[in-house]
Design goal:
about 290 residues; mainly alpha; 2 domains; three-stranded antiparallel β-sheet
Length: about 290
């Protein structure tokens, strides 16, 4: 009886300890201190890498989605008091991976391990149900991490964009010659470089469509199609933009095309692609917002 009583008391103490808000708060602060080098690296990438400038918006957005989930889900508030020790396994494995990658200065891999640590903390202190409910917000953090191979994909995409946009311009009557990513007009020689590859629009639109698939109601297949369509639509928008840039360079001058039109046309065509997504959501029956997550 004594042993059972002691065991029961210890178990009750452990549950009260895990349910205390001080322990999760202390663990979160410790996580932030430990991962500070990765957050500094992420900040530098967001500020200096045009392809991932949207990453700055993801952490506050994820925090907002998590708070809203707790606000509207009564079950989540009740289950958040039931921790799960199995989460410690994920937390420890992710911690070992994080320290290894950090030591190897592989910051992007350390960032993925950091997200594993966050999931481990949620599982440990919130339990399985809370982890399931917050799976999207936690997983969405992966889209803020710059990937090293993105830079290497700009040249093939620039070549593809040059061929397609030049072919479209030629079809519409413009006298243009394309060799690789070099474009020759009657009044100018141009090069389709990394800035015209459309990678930044592709990454940003994909991230936005993943978020839309979470926020919208409708069939799972329809929401997945919405995410998949982000890639060809982003590429289509970029091809149309570059083709229009060729017409501007021919009609006016290279300086006029690249000093004003080039800088603002990207945003214009990106917005046009977003407007195209509106009828697509209706066609896929995914045009209604989920009010329980926003």
């Amino acid at each position: 009886m004594t042993q059972l009583s002691v065991s029961g008391i210890l178990h009750a103490m452990q549950r009260r300890l895990f349910q205390s808000s001080l322990v999760p708060l202390a663990a979160t602060l410790l996580l932030l201190l430990l991962t500070a080098p990765v957050w500094r690296w992420l900040w530098g990438e967001w500020m200096g890498n045009d392809y991932y400038s949207h990453g700055l918006l993801i952490p506050p957005l994820v925090l907002f989605l998590a708070i809203q989930r707790f606000r509207y889900d009564q079950t989540l508030r009740v289950r958040s008091k039931q921790g799960n020790n199995i989460g410690l396994v994920l937390l420890l494995v992710s911690l070992v991976a994080f320290l290894f990658f950090l030591n190897q200065v592989a910051y992007y891999l350390a960032a993925f391990a950091m997200i594993g640590m966050i999931a481990g903390l949620v599982w440990t202190f919130g339990g399985t149900t809370v982890l399931q409910k917050l799976a999207f917000p936690v997983g969405y953090l992966t889209l803020m991490i710059p990937l090293p191979f993105v830079e290497r994909s700009t040249l093939p995409l620039a070549l593809f964009t040059g061929v397609c946009s030049g072919g479209l311009a030629r079809f519409l009557g413009l006298n243009v010659t394309i060799v690789g990513n070099a474009v020759t007009l009657p009044n100018a020689d141009l090069v389709i470089g990394a800035q015209c590859s459309g990678v930044n629009s592709l990454i940003a639109l994909t991230s936005l469509m993943v978020l839309a698939a979470y926020l919208l109601q409708g069939p799972l297949a329809g929401r997945l199609i919405l995410v998949v369509l982000a890639v060809p639509l982003a590429m289509l928008g970029n091809i149309l933009r570059v083709a229009s840039l060729l017409f501007m360079a021919r009609a006016y001058s290279v300086d006029a095309a690249f000093t004003f039109y080039h800088d603002y046309s990207g945003l214009v065509f990106f917005m046009l692609v977003l407007l195209l997504m509106v009828p697509l959501t209706r066609l896929l029956r995914t045009s209604t917002l989920r009010m329980d997550v926003i």
